[in-house]
Every structure is written in C-alpha cells, then in structure tokens.
User: Fold this.
Amino acid sequence: MVPDQRIRERPAASAEWLRAARAARALSLVTLVWLGVESGLGLAAGLAAHSVALIGWGLAALVEAAASLIVVWRFTGARTLSPSAETTARRAVAVSFWLLAPYLVLHVAYDLDAGHRAEPNLLGIVVTSLSLAGMPALGLAKRRLGARLASPSTSGEGTQNLICAATAACVLAGLWLGTLGWWWVDPLVAVALAAVAVREGRRAWRGHACCH
Assistant:
C-alpha cells in the first residue's frame, strides 16, 4: 500500500478524531514556545562552549519549531479534514529533517580544522537537561496522536522531539567526556544526528513516520 493511500484511509472525522486533531495542534503550539526559548539558549551556550553538538542541538530546535508550525497549519481550518493537506504537511516535515544535516557536517569539518574543543558551561547543561526532561513526553504524545489521526506529519514532529531529547542526552555525555579528553565524542554526536535526520526525513517523505 503506497503512503498516499494510507493517508486517504485515515479514520473518519468523528468527534474523537477531531478532539485528537485539536490536541495535536495545541501540543504543537506549546512546543513552538518551548523551542523558541530552547533554541536561543542552546545556541548561546554552544557558541560559548565551542560545542558542535550543542550548536547543532540548538539549530535542531529551530527545525523542530518549523515542524511544529507545519502541524499547526495542517490542523487549522478546512485543512483539518483535507488528505491533500496531510500529504503537503508530511513532505514539509520531511524537508525540515533534511535542513539540519548539511549544516552539521560542515560545522564539524570547520571546527575540527580550527581545532575547537567543546567545553562544559552551566547554561548548556541547564538547557539540555530541561530538554531531556520534557521532550520525551511531548514526542511520545504526538506519536500516539499521529497514529490515531493517521497523520505522518504529526508522528514525524513527535520523532523530532524524541531526537531532540536523545541528542540532549548525548550532548551532556559529550561535554562530560570532553573533560576526560574524549573530545571526539562531541563531533561524533553531531554527525550521528545528521545521519538520523536524513533517515527520518526519508521515512516521513514516504509516509512511514506513524508506523516507525
């Protein structure tokens, strides 16, 4: 069964389905506010610490914000019941995954060439810890809603939230390991994030996000 056929076969627009759609939109609005603050603080901390992974994590927050905005668009007005709007939204979410990967790889190459090494700082530790605490709950809730709505765009946004939480954990580990001389962990995390973003973008484009 091709992805577009799965989307056309979404559940009927019952009262329960519409409540789930409103919940998806509300969670995306909450996430937009969260990520705006998170991205600004993460970028500031990453630049101060010369951390590729932390900077990449801050930029990932901007990409996630774009995905949240797409889901808000998807479930607003007449688009809520439009299969074509879901197709557009899931492809836009896929593109949002792909926006991050080239930057991460180029930034790793630049920092390695310049000899930059990540250094822990209090702001970076606080911001990533907050993300690690809150993003899993948002991501899992959106993936459940995506399955109920047959909405790969919603599931894809949830996956981005989970990637954000996993990356926050890796960034924290990388900063700590950097103090032990394992400086290579930080750029390795950034490259791994780029690979994950490419893979998840491909899955979202094909409409597989809600099944993954």
